[in-house]
Design a protein that fits this description.
Blueprint: H1 2-14, E1 22-25, E2 28-32, E3 37-41, E4 49-51, H2 59-70, E5 77-79, H3 85-88, H4 91-98, E6 102-104, H5 128-134, E7 148-150, E8 156-157, E9 160-167, E10 176-180, E11 185-189, H6 201-204, H7 221-233, E12 238-241, E13 247-248, H8 249-261, H9 263-267
Parallel strand pairs: 4-5, 5-6, 6-7, 11-12
Antiparallel strand pairs: 1-2, 2-3, 3-4, 8-9, 9-10, 10-11, 12-13
This protein binds zinc ion (ZN) (2 copies).
The site of one zinc ion has 8 residues, from α3.
Amino acid sequence: MEHERLKQLEEMEQNYEHAVPEKVTDDIAYYRTLLTNVVMIGAPDQDWVLIDTSLKRYQQRIIHACEERYGNKPPKAIILTHGHFDHSGSARKLAEYWNVPIYVHEKEMDYVTGKESYPPGDPTVGGGIISILSVIFPTQPEHLEKFVQPLPSDGSVPFLEDWHYIETPGHSKGHISFFREKDRVLIAGDAISTEKPESSWSILFPIQHIYGPPAYFTEDWVEAGNSVKKIAELKPSIVIAGHGLPMDGEEMQEELEELADNFIEKAIPKHRKYH
Ligand SMILES: [Zn+2]
Ligand SMILES: [Zn+2]
């Protein structure tokens, strides 16, 4: 039954005419694919950058959503929060189409250039279809070597002057989030999520709360907990995570602090393969 539902959702998404961006602020929008958000930074009349690229075969839908906002003006670059298949899947096709560079954190480079594989997903955490599928999800590295380069090591983000990136390892070694001081917007990637990603129901009926990183691929829970502390200390006003709808306001901040203070009880699955 869960397979049926997933198939229905996939079919719905085949029709990319429906792929439209949702505005978060004047110069930030996101497009929610089946599993993962992609984020567009830049006002429609400005230069812009795409953060993350969802699964493989999403390039048409992503291009459509981006063209709705920017016409046929390509982004200056594609930047990935990390290299997992649900964030880097369409990166190569999009980089080819737009002829633009891809950036990742230096520590993520090996995973997107065929040198290193992620550990296999941990099917023992959480329930639902996503955890089951995690066993067959690809952990084979993406081959982005023709396009990809490491981000500058000083935390600056190419083409985005008022943003910097923050190292938020744990979910993966070179995982990063993006932050802008002036309005305290945080693009969290998988450092946290705003829906319970292990539950298949959340794809259709997302309940907006702050949760820990998607458990099935998180490699190091101690590091992941430190990363949540780091982003809670930023006191973001808006959070856009890789999975789930954006959140803002006091309740979100309280939940984020709560998660940071009680990470072991709240985020770490009782049964797990990785420690
Ligand atoms: Zn991930
Ligand atoms: Zn993810």
